[in-house]
Design a protein that fits this description.
Length: 233
């Protein structure tokens, strides 16, 4: 507030009415203003987990998220791992999906966009959180991989992710997306793009070396399934 002003203007109060904890400071109180800015800069957004529970699985011929590699459905196994590093963990599903899970379902509110729509739906639910998003068809991803990703998190970037040496590109389906990514994803959608990898390629990111290229092995077909079972064994 400026000198001589004792109340927030009605127009401004109307817009900030839901922010009950908003500090009200005098413009001359530079020390208090500085502390508020520093506190904001030091805030680290909480991490929430998002497991892409599987699309239509046409090439596989069965639900990829329900395949048992580690003693339980893969989507539950991956959610169990993410829950060790996140505040809450959700399964990203199509709106019509009929899935029973120990974890809450997060239905797509951006339809027919695949994982891109799942990410946007997650940010729509909580735009102030960072979302640790992992596909359900990478059964070699384990706790150590997720630990490395979160330990090297760079909150100043759009996302922290691994480099996919098979494609020589950043891997979007094993990535920690910061809150700033929400606006970036919407910008790309407005331009007609719905590819998370394109967002990473064209945004400031922290790209980590993959500890073992095999961890990014996707299982999309029956032959992929047989091959990865050999690796697990």
């Amino acid at each position: 507030l400026d000198d001589g002003i004792t109340e927030i203007s009605p127009l401004l109060a109307e817009h900030i009415g839901t922010l009950r904890d908003l500090p009200i400071l005098r413009i001359s109180d530079t020390e208090a203003i500085t502390q508020v800015v520093l506190q904001y800069m030091q805030h680290i957004p909480p991490i929430k987990g998002l497991v892409f529970a599987g699309g239509q699985s046409i090439r596989m011929g069965r639900d990829k998220g329900a395949i048992n590699y580690h003693g339980k459905p893969q989507r539950e196994h991956m959610a169990d791992i993410l829950s060790e590093f996140t505040e809450n963990t959700y399964l990203s599903v199509r709106e019509s999906a009929n899935i029973k899970s120990n974890y809450p379902l997060l239905p797509d509110t951006f339809h027919d966009l695949g994982p891109f729509g799942g990410l946007l739906s997650a940010f729509r639910q909580d735009p102030d959180a960072a979302w640790l998003a992992v596909a359900c068809d990478v059964p070699l991803v384990d706790r150590d991989v997720i630990s490395q990703l979160t330990a090297n998190r760079d909150t100043s970037q759009t996302a922290t992710c691994f480099h996919n040496p098979h494609r020589n590109l950043p891997e979007p389906m094993l990535a920690l997306w910061e809150p700033r990514a929400y606006q970036r994803l919407l910008q790309f959608l407005a331009l007609g793009y719905s590819c998370p990898q394109k967002v990473l390629i064209n945004s400031p990111i922290c790209e980590l070396d993959t500890p073992d290229p095999s961890i990014l092995t996707n299982v999309n077909t029956p032959s992929d399934y047989e091959a990865v079972q050999t690796l697990i064994a």
